[in-house]
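Journal club side-thread
Mid-discussion, someone asked how the predicted structure for our own chain would compare to the paper's figures. Pasting it here so we can look after the session.
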Amino acid sequence: MRSRIALATSCALFAIGCAAAKPVAVPALKLEPAPANVTRRRACELGEAALCYQRGMALAGRDGDPDMTAAATWFERSCRDGFAEACDRLAAQYAQGFGVARDDRRAARLFKQACDGGDFSACSSLGVLYGEGRGVEQDEARAATLYRVACQRHDTLGCFNLGMSYLEAHGVELDEMLAAELFQEACRQDMAQACGMLGRMYFDGRGVQPDAQQARVLFERACDAHDAAGCWNLAGMFATGAGVEKDVRRAIQWLRRACDEGSAAACEQLNRH
């Protein structure tokens, strides 16, 4: 199950939003309006760090034509002026090689700057790098501490990654009950992967009482939110009759959904039918 935390290296868990494949939304920032004769770009050049960040977000989220290289330039200006969210975005680009050459050491420094500046999603991302030894010396205990910091400040990804740490005893002692509680918290905040993991725990009876029906509900919730693993697990339940009445036709339907959501294994299984 180590790969679940490794998923945090994807754009989704680095909180940048896969801009190369799907434009990110530009968040609404509470800013004082610039004078009518001052453009956002000019305001940024005059030292408005938040406006530099907003310009970077506009470029990253440009519908159908994101410009991640230009976005990185504006995020760097904003980060240099102390805007933590910009440091987080720039770090994610360096961690993934979006619009810039991949540089894990620089990503780690930027995530730390953002985390220290109060962007707690960056603490979780920095934890991923410590957990994998990317750009920093591997330290799973440090990773778990960073996940905890993020989770305590209501960062969904931090709670999920901390749950995985307790489930697999990475940097902390094994605690399946606490892992289930953390997945439940992340699922409550609509994280599809967390709902799927909690479903798996109900199915296997790890940290919770076995409950196939609750597992099915959680797998469906995960699948409906585009989590391929949730769809895959539903296919398995119907294919084998585990906790449900065996139904090969429905199993294939769930398998097809898993394939559509990007599961290569599901696509391979479909090709055999």
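Post-session note: Residues 1-38 have pLDDT under 50 and may be disordered.
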